[in-house]
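In the laboratory, one determines a bound structure by crystallizing the protein with its ligand and collecting diffraction data. In a computational setting the workflow is compressed into a single prediction: the sequence and the ligand go in, and a structural description comes out. We illustrate the idea with NAP.
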Amino acid sequence: MRVLVMGARGQLGRDCVSVLGETHDVIAYDLPEVDVTDCAAASATVRRAAPEVIVNCAAYTRVDDAETDRQTAHLVNAGGAQCLAELARECGAYLVHVSTDYVFDGQRAPPQPYLPEDAPEPANWYGRTKLAGEQSIAEVGPRHVILRTAWLYGRHGGNFLKAVLRQALRDPRRPLWVVADQHGCPTWSHRLAHQIGRFIASRPEGVFHAVAAGHTTWYDLAVSFLGMMGLDRTVERCSTKDRPTPAVRPANSILADPRLADPDFGVMRPWEQDLEEFVRLHGAGIADEIRAEIA
Ligand SMILES: NC(=O)c1ccc[n+]([C@@H]2O[C@H](COP(=O)([O-])OP(=O)(O)OC[C@H]3O[C@@H](n4cnc5c(N)ncnc54)[C@H](OP(=O)(O)O)[C@@H]3O)[C@@H](O)[C@H]2O)c1
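The predicted complex, in structure-token form:
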């Protein structure tokens, strides 16, 4: 089956290319060769590829920058999604579009999760652009699924775990201060790529939440990760108000979707198990890269 992955050099895109490439004929695109905000140019490329499935991992993901770079964020996350929806409809392709926990404002008391049927209410501009992308796809109406995920980490690209490791290795004596009042589901991009493979195989439509099972805080995630890495570093709790950011972060980013508990369909695992496997497979490699970068 011919599967087109857009945003193929990003964190999730790279895992999708390698995981889906095991069983499908994968065509991979990213900037600069295909820009989803230039739909006329993108359309020629996509039509030539004639995919049966389009997986959209392309996005403007710099959440804080989006507050000031509003137009670009909207063009990519809303306009790009609309463009791919139109192209999917034209090609008769099934569209897998990746969205975010940030479509919710996170005001619900943790650990109560957000479910796919809950009404979105974004608290920042990035979330608003991602919600606009979801709505455009639904309006255009190709066969599609919207997968909301959260707190992604992976081997490629930048993420929270790499930022924690960079700080821990750069100055081993200085305590790390990590936000302890935001709750979410740390999700391994490699596992999510496998889950996307299941969606492609059975092609359900609508909105799904695809995150690791269980939940934690950034603080507990940092402590668990450094422990698994065998690094003895002091980690201190701080609160969101001690660390103001241009974009408001949801205090509760916990997502759940009972449909993914079906073992014939869902492959997501408890976050601790995935983190352990991630550290076993990639911990040493990532630490070497970061040591080389800060040397
Ligand atoms: N990271 C998270 O914690 C998280 C959480 C929830 C949901 N998500 C969603 O998960 C998806 C994948 O995230 P990720 O972490 O893999 O993001 P990422 O690493 O930033 O990857 C996004 C990719 O899209 C590319 N891109 C940006 N603008 C584009 C354009 N106009 N045309 C074509 N490609 C473009 C980026 O290229 P450049 O790098 O050159 O800009 C990058 O390669 C996104 O939809 C994101 O909203 C992520």
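The chain has one domain: 2-160+185-215+254-270. Keep in mind that any predicted model is a hypothesis to be tested, not a measurement.
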